[in-house]
């Protein structure tokens, strides 16, 4: 629902310039309620360009809060949008230091009551946590959406010590983002000189990320899990099960010592009042209660809510996208980890999952390099984009599967399943992928959760070692948190594979993995119902009126899988055209499109190839610019081969190009 009437009229200041101690000018947009009373301010800092990148979501959210008495400042971080400087990498200490300066500056303004909050989704959720750990005096509370406290474990780079293909897609996206010109309507005639300096400083971030394949100091910086106790301000953590960052919510609830609340719903990588799949909630109403409590000292009842409000997915067959809503219902836990949840151990026996061990033969799996195709995308975006996991029966056929008998009663699971396996491998470098599925009476297999582990990292992400070939060893693997009710008559399936393409980059050789039946377990988090579940209530979703927009060309999303039977090559092609639109209130026209093509031979992991392309064009004032980037990744036995190319154009004419080819040694990845 779009709200059009608010308690306060809203004044918009754009640009608001903030000059840092080193002379760098930071560009911001400020939405402020018209009132003589002093008000708090909430800060969001991301590099995605406030005027033409995130403007649609910014206008949905920040004016709504300002209309209810909470000022909001949307910041272009150093080197992005209209701000000076260089954006050298993600989550740098310099970015956090800038944030502390900006918070102090805003808190000192005559209209501010001295209390500041920080919020954001994804990048903005990351830096809200990172800045909170620095304890700037005016920062009293944060709301972090779709983020993580551990940059190595849960970001787009590595998972379980294995390389995510998403890393190269993201680095290519950032190549373009970093290369776009500032808005001449804001910075004036200086825009071209700023753009030229920005282009000269732009290169692929993947060169850095691939140089750090272990969990070293590079990843520890900005990972607040290194010291959760450093965060003393109040934290609300929000995410959705269809997003790849959802693990951070229960982890923060377990480890943060201060005031905290968690909400996990059915959503993908989007704010819970916009995006898909639903049902959406009145997220802004919850945020307003949070900010009024912590920044205004009002008793809004927000801290009387359950510690953990969580969506329990109900019975629904797997689909490539879900519109409009997921099946399910809300539940509540007042503690996390919850003492109410039973850790139920099931044994991996030759006959399936059982309550008692039945020792027997070693059970083998040798997955082809194409295994994993139907498991969706790491970081799927939901909505109408067909990147969710589909029926897992093909994947189950390429894996080693253990089933329960049909359930006699409904069974609700909430939390992270854990595996304890005794395995043997025939190669020193092996990836393990474990999936937990809800199997319908007709055989349909719905992915509930999964986890992966580079077995070289079985003991340490800091100090990996080759697997002991031919010698049994223990593996412990925690799967991703999830919540689902498995109906009576369904079965629960654990599927183990040693490939997970295209989510994971494959190890150099196919491998055979053996599991000792009767000497391995899976621990399931079984949740009984609670009367507290009835207390979970959300208002209907609301936003402010959208930014006035004219759609000039519609967009589309496609996922096409082809098998060249003669060549033995499987290709997965993802393409998204985001259309062309004009933001009428600022006379800016934007269009963008991306494609990701992944190919591999079933019998040859070293044939893996990823080509990712992104194009973005913006016309504003005197500037009509675009940037296009292409990144390619291949590998052999010992090295990754990374190549990238960036081209920038003004009015269709090439004005800048840069490229590089790098050969980077594989470090157990």
UniProtKB/TrEMBL annotation:
Keywords: Hydrolase. InterPro entries: AB_hydrolase_fold, CocE/Ser_esterase, Galactose-bd-like_sf, Xaa-Pro-like_dom, Xaa-Pro_dipept_C, Xaa-Pro_dipeptidyl-ppase/CocE. Residues 530-540 have a biased composition (Basic and acidic residues). The keyword Signal does not apply. It comes from the Bacteria. Residues 288-546 form the Xaa-Pro dipeptidyl-peptidase C-terminal domain. Residues 524-555 are annotated as: Disordered. Gene3D superfamilies: alpha-amino acid ester hydrolase ( Helical cap domain), alpha/beta hydrolase, Galactose-binding domain-like. GO terms for molecular function: hydrolase activity. This is CocE/NonD family hydrolase.
